[in-house]
Give the backbone structure.
Amino acid sequence: MRNGTTITFMLPQKKGRAHVFMYYCRVNDKEKEKLMQFGNWTIKDESIEWNGHEMGRFIIPKDDITAIRYDKKGSFFYNWILVATEEDWLTQDDLYDLNYAFVYAVAQWGFEFNYETFDSTLEEQYEQFDEEDEDWDG
């Protein structure tokens, strides 16, 4: 029998659509570590980790999760979301799941969260998705 809780979660998606997803939280009895799973992303006590089947490895350390980057226009972004977006081997679905995992982890770990920075980050991420789609179409 699975030991855990299911939570319901909603974030805005590309082009104004909102989706509600359910994710499962479980306790790893072997390590007594509470884990939250979003697609192929697992939130552990000290990191968010990619656990997909690809050869790639991606870990976001807890202490650095809210690191910021900015552009020449003065926009601020959450760095790790865009670092992941730049990885060719992660799919758009993987990145949508990371967005959920990111918000959950920031709240779970008690870090300050800036909605304007997150909105800017998602806008930049979606622009990169659109550029990729144009590259495939063109």
Notes: Confidence is low (pLDDT under 50) at residues 16-22. The beta strands are 4-12, 18-28, 33-38, 41-43, 47-50, 59-61, 68-70, 76-78. The longest strand covers residues 18-28.
